[in-house]
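User: Here's a chain of 328 residues. Predict its fold as tokens.
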Amino acid sequence: MSAKTQHNNILLAILGFAAVVIIVAAIGYFALGRDPELIQGQVEVSEYRVSSKVPGRILEIRVKEGDFVRAGDTLAILDAPEVRAKMEQAQGAEAAAAALELKAQNGARQEQIQGAYQVMQQANAGLEIAQKSYQRIQRLFDEGVVSAQKRDEVYANFKAMEAQAMAAKSQYQMAVNGARREDKLAAQAQVNRARGAVQEVNSYINETVQIAQMDGEVSSIYPKVGELVGTGSPIMTISLMNDMWGTFNVREDQLNGLAIDSTFTAFVPAFNKDIQMKVYYMKDQGSFAVWKATKATGEYDLKTFEVKARPVEKLEGLRPGMTLIIKQ
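Assistant: Prediction complete.
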């Protein structure tokens, strides 16, 4: 083989290799370039946790995971003997306060009033005798028959009986009038305080029966029957299936016009169909979020935003955790 022929073969090989590289690059460019950039998110739902203000033991759970409950439905029953004991104490205190308040309102017993009246009558009789004795001695003193000392002694006895009669009258009036107004108000305040304690304990008793606050689906149940739960410990989680939205983490160069109240199309792989969604929330994820450099040398960084959007129309069967895809 001549040198010229060999040179031509090498040149053809190089050109062929270059052509293959160009064709492969073109195919890769067109094939890969046509694939849209995907933004993946997922469906989320509002939830609330059912918990009790009082500690107790789970006596009964009336629902199971997956059940749909309506507001007012009984979910679980707790056993709290300590709360029942406190109720008995509070009711006893209320009864005692009510009795004292009734005593203050009614005043003294009829026997006490009668006794005070008899003492007053006795003091009045003594006063009448002392007064007559003083009047007689005073006349005799004026005639010079008795001494001034005798007159003074009788006068002192008269004044003492007069004071005793006034004191007996005051005791009788006190028995008739009953307790002072301030004592009655204090007794009424004690009754109100005891009633408040009963109402407080009654609210704790109501907490032993847990009811649904809103319509929803039971997504999780934590304790088993017979287990103890503390104050505020979650018993179950209820998902509000009528309040769903999608959450996406979008780099700012991918926002492409996404803004509050804007709509976009999202693909739901679970149903192999597209749905329209409306943005209602958008916020940067802060300094802890992943930043991406635009170039290797890093002229500037791109931040990630959390975007939330709700379906424009309800899609039957859509559930929390399902994937949502935005194609760009």
